Amino acid sequence: MPTPNEESATGPDAESAGDEAESTSRETAAEAGESLPREAIDDAERLTRLARNAIDDEETAAYEAERETLLEDHEYTARVRTEDDDVLVLHPKEWHDEDAGVIRTDRIDDLERAVEIPLEGAGDPDDWEAVDAANRALVEDVRAAHGEVHGDNAALLADFMGNHYAKPIESATVAELSEFRTEYVVRNAWPSDEQRDALERSIELVFETAGEPVPEYRSE
User: Most buried residue, 15, 76, 97, 177, by most Cβ within 10 Å?
Assistant: First the structure.
């Protein structure tokens, strides 16, 4: 938002003030190392998958526009990289040279602010929405039977399995559960102390509630 002085300025001075304000804003964001919140990442991925599964171009465009609006609030951009398997790439806006349409490596302050999410793979179903709905139903079953803490951890696992692998929770592999425990929860979620302490038991309860054996995910 411009300051009162900037609002009253006219001519070249106003343009200079605007450029300076934009530069200051970009530097402040870089210094803060602001990353995209987990909720925004999940929403961006959900909208991307909905766009990919849309039945017509107008529906696809609507989902993509909603994703763009979501990411604009956080000064991020989105694109789908298609060189190999499709990957959703989310980058801070200030990394881009909009005129040239490229990433300026000299503007990259912290590579961990970038987000890359595989959209394809052996476990990617045709009907992602149905899988996500089934995962959410399982979460509510866990919550009803075992309480809020285990329910909240089940929701984290549903986010991970649905958004990163597009698979039912109960089909999670040993490697995927290990990634969930050691990377996703640590780097991308913000569980409470109670959730952290209960995480191992929560995973067991999710599989027990689904009527499936618990994978031997403990390697320690």
Answer: 76
